[in-house]
């Protein structure tokens, strides 16, 4: 009996890429001895993505779709794919064709060699993005690696193959803010990374704005480390020590020279600085409390409005 591969493809406003990515997968899999299905998760698209998927599924029986009631985010879309997939291994891949489909053969080959997770990471900076995005991405991954206990390659992507044992573990996880690039590293098992160079996006624009990328970065950091809380504490202790030293110096100077140190502007600047610092520390604490608050509600990661998956 042939082993089954499930392709999990989150999509948001990808109406022009559905045919391209599905045909690319068909072309690669036609050369391999596996059964497979292609699961598209429509993450609340505002274009005709759902209509294209619905029409294409009537012709292509290997194509499945899950359509959300609204936009829940890429990681929630991946979770839906894991929840519904019934396979020997799942391959997560983007719909925009920046993940080269020809790498599928190598992913499957490494999986057959015994690796339970084989993920792709950018060996070089993406040649199709600007300098700011390249630099911010590199800083984020280096920072996340530094403050967490995870061994993450710079530029690790959502392009990967995952064995059914790992998929079963991922189905059991119930986090309100999922960050799969970190979680899949965290679960362990036998893993291997392979480098790749992203292709240029053929149609449409990226759905990640700078605001969304910043939110993703904060989510990734707070999901896998409490070190920001310790950093805030040590920062407060350090500044308090500096303030004590300065106060001793001020008192000593005033008593010795019998005069006080004037400086209205410096006093106001100091007050504003420490006030801003307090807000930053409270904000860090608030983020963690907010995550606990949202988790306590027990709301689902996604809601499905329509699907042909049975």
Quick gist of this model?
The chain has 310 residues and is of the alpha/beta class. Helices cover 50% and strands 16% of the residues.
Helices and strands in order:
Blueprint: E1 4-11, H1 18-29, E2 35-42, H2 49-59, E3 63-68, H3 74-84, E4 89-92, H4 104-112, E5 117-122, H5 131-147, E6 156-163, H6 164-172, H7 180-186, E7 191-196, H8 210-224, H9 227-257, H10 264-297, E8 304-307
Parallel strand pairs: 1-2, 1-4, 2-3, 5-7
Antiparallel strand pairs: 3-8, 4-6, 5-6
Please provide a written account of the structure.
The longest helix is centred in the C-terminal third of the chain and has 34 residues, at 264-297. The chain has 310 residues and is of the alpha/beta class. Helix content is 50%, strand content 16%. The protein contains ten helices and eight strands. The protein is elongated.
Instruction: Give the helix tally.
Output: 10
Mean pLDDT: 76
Ends: how far apart? 21 Å
Rg is 25 Å
Order of helices and strands: EHEHEHEHEHEHHEHHHE
Q: Which descriptor suits the 3D outline? A: elongated
Unreliable sequence segments = none
Specify the CATH homologous superfamily of the largest domain: Spore Coat Polysaccharide Biosynthesis Protein SpsA, Chain A
Q: What is the number of domains?
A: 2
Briefly note the structural class of the backbone. Answer: alpha/beta
Query: Would you report the number of β strands?
Result: 8
Largest sheet report: 8 strands, mixed
The CATH architecture of the largest domain can be given as: Alpha-Beta Complex
Level-1 CATH class name of the largest domain: Alpha Beta
Strand order of the largest sheet: 7-5-6-4-1-2-3-8
Strand content of the residues, in percent?
Answer: 15-25%
**Helix fraction by DSSP (H/I, runs of at least 4):** 40-55%
CATH topology of the largest domain: Spore Coat Polysaccharide Biosynthesis Protein SpsA, Chain A
